[in-house]
Each structure stands twice: as structure tokens, then as C-alpha cells.
């Protein structure tokens, strides 16, 4: 079976037009027709029904089933091409969210530098949700990811390195600044400043606010941790951040939340199961494992 035929068929399912598929792949329309016929012969079932009178194309049940399978086949094939191309590369394609890069990555950066690994690293710094997609697609090979619940993924090897609670963060001038601990419901009237949607913090904010029974008024979202703390320090709103994000001298106050929610900031080391690291890449991954000792979880 020609995998190119599967690519043509997948496009036909999406576009419902032989002409558009031919244009997309820059081939003749008969090429697409013959490819579909080959697949129908291969699988012994009609995949497409054409109503020429009404210029209508319908995918049969057999065609729908094949399309579902072919999507994974084509994805795996594309990933295989990328991995073969990268097999002899002396680079490490690494993903990290900014908040982990700020708080925990420096704990191992010195060791990576001493081993000559930092200079070989190509780093993608975006939110954990996007990094998970990039890993699964083969655009990066290893990542440190944050999640509000322990990660599960069929195609990825995941090692939980640390788990930290979320805390409410307020200005020193906030009425609750001296409370020490609060219920999230006490912040119902406040404005909120949060990380943008590709990070895990909005997920935690949603969980806490739903538990407390109110919709948070988000007045500003940003991927920059220092900006969040600056706006909170100016008493322009409150925030929900992982506890280690707040350092002495930030000019803000972190409050323990009494709400009995399971959401925490979980930091995990994630590698594709099919990834076969070379010596350089394996040394990089092994060094990241040491974060399990230095970025200790907080109960």
C-alpha cells in the first residue's frame, strides 16, 4: 500500500473534492481517482460515493473507519521522518514554560553548563499546553511541563519531579494581607491578574473559582510572571500562583488556601516514548532528573 494514497484520501475526506485535493498536492485529478481506487481494491470496500448529478461526494462508513486509522498512520510516518532527520543531530530540542524556567530550571542550569550541554540546547519557551502538542508532534524531544493534575499520555514517558500548592497572591495593602490563610471565596469581589490561557494557572483559577461559586473578574492576562507580581504589588488585582513563585523582596503576600482541592502545580519531565536519545541528549535528560531532588515537593 502506498502511504501517499492515504494522504490523498485523508485530504479528500476533509475537502470533499477531487479537484481541490489534486490542486493541494499539485497532481492531476486522475492521479487522485486512481489512488482512491487502489485503496478500495486494497480494503475490498467502497470508500467514496459520488453523486455526479448533484456534484456531491459522500464518505462511506468503511471510508470513515479508514480515515480514522490513516490519520494515526500518517502522523506516525511524519514523526518517523523527523526523528530520522534528527538522529545524528548534536542538538537538544527542549521545551520549558517560562515559570519553570524562572523558578526551577536555574537549579540545574549550572550543571548543564559545566557539562557543555546548554550550548547544544534549542529551547522553546511557551506554555505547557502548547509544549505537550509540540512533543506529541515531534517538534521537540524533551520538556519540563506544568499541570494541575498528574499527566497521562499514551505516547509519552512522564516522570513527576515535584508538586507544589497554589496560593493566593495579594498586595501588602490588601485587606487580607495579614490573614495568613483564606478560603478562595473571600476573593470573589477582587480583580484577577493571571497567566495567559496556554499556561496551567488559568486551569487552577477555574477550578478554585468554581469550587468557591463565583466567576473571577480577570482584568489582565500575561505570560510574564514579573509583570503579574508587579501589577499585584501595585494593588491592581490579585493572582493565583504556585507557592515558589513568590520570593522575599517581591512586595506581595502569598496566602495559603483552605479549599480542599486536588489541583497543584505538578512539574514533570516528559519525553516521547519513541524517542531514542543519543549520548548528548541522554546526558541532558539525566541531568534534568536531578530536579526531583532539588525541587522538593511541598505537602
From TrEMBL:
GO terms, molecular function: DNA binding; DNA-binding transcription factor activity
> Where in this chain does the record put each HTH lysR-type domain?
1-58
PROSITE patterns for this protein = HTH_LYSR
- Pfam families documented for this protein: HTH_1, LysR_substrate
Which SUPFAM superfamilies does the record associate with it? Periplasmic binding protein-like II, Winged helix' DNA-binding domain
Species of origin: Furfurilactobacillus siliginis
A cellular component term, taken from the record's GO annotations: protein-DNA complex
Record bears the keyword Nucleotide-binding: no
Which family is annotated? Belongs to the LysR transcriptional regulatory family.
Which protein is depicted? LysR family transcriptional regulator
- The reply on keyword Phosphoprotein is no
Q: Which UniProt keywords apply?
A: DNA-binding, Transcription, Transcription regulation
Amino acid at each position: 500500500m502506498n502511504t501517499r494514497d492515504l494522504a490523498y484520501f485523508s485530504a479528500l475526506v476533509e475537502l470533499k473534492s477531487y479537484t481541490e485535493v489534486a490542486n493541494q498536492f499539485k497532481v492531476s485529478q486522475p492521479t487522485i481517482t486512481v489512488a482512491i481506487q487502489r485503496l478500495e481494491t486494497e480494503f475490498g470496500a467502497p470508500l467514496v460515493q459520488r453523486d455526479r448529478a448533484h456534484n456531491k461526494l459522500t464518505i462511506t462508513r468503511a471510508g470513515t473507519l479508514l480515515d480514522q486509522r490513516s490519520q494515526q498512520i500518517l502522523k506516525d510516518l511524519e514523526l518517523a521522518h523527523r526523528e530520522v532527520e534528527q538522529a545524528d543531530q548534536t542538538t537538544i530540542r527542549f521545551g520549558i514554560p517560562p515559570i519553570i524556567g524562572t523558578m526551577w530550571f536555574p537549579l540545574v542550569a549550572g550543571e548543564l553548563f559545566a557539562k557543555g550541554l546548554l550550548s547544544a540546547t534549542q529551547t522553546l519557551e511557551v506554555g505547557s499546553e502548547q509544549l505537550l502538542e509540540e512533543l506529541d508532534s515531534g517538534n521537540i524531544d524533551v520538556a519540563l511541563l506544568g499541570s494541575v493534575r498528574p499527566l497521562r499520555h499514551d505516547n509519552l514517558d512522564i516522570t513527576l519531579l515535584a508538586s507544589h500548592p497554589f496560593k493566593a497572591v495579594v498586595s501588602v495593602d490588601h485587606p487580607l494581607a495579614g490573614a495568613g490563610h483564606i478560603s478562595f471565596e473571600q476573593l470573589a469581589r477582587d480583580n484577577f491578574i493571571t497567566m495567559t490561557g496556554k499556561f496551567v494557572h488559568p486551569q487552577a483559577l477555574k477550578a478554585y473559582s468554581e469550587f468557591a461559586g463565583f466567576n473571577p473578574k480577570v482584568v489582565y492576562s500575561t505570560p510574564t510572571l514579573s509583570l503579574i507580581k508587579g501589577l499585584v504589588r501595585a494593588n491592581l488585582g490579585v493572582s493565583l500562583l504556585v507557592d515558589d513563585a513568590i520570593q522575599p523582596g517581591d512586595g506581595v503576600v502569598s496566602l495559603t488556601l483552605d479549599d480542599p482541592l486536588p489541583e497543584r502545580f505538578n512539574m514533570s519531565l516528559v519525553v516521547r516514548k519513541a524517542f531514542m536519545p543519543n549520548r548528548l541528549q541522554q546526558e541532558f535528560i539525566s541531568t534534568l532528573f536531578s530536579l526531583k531532588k532539588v525541587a522538593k515537593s511541598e505537602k
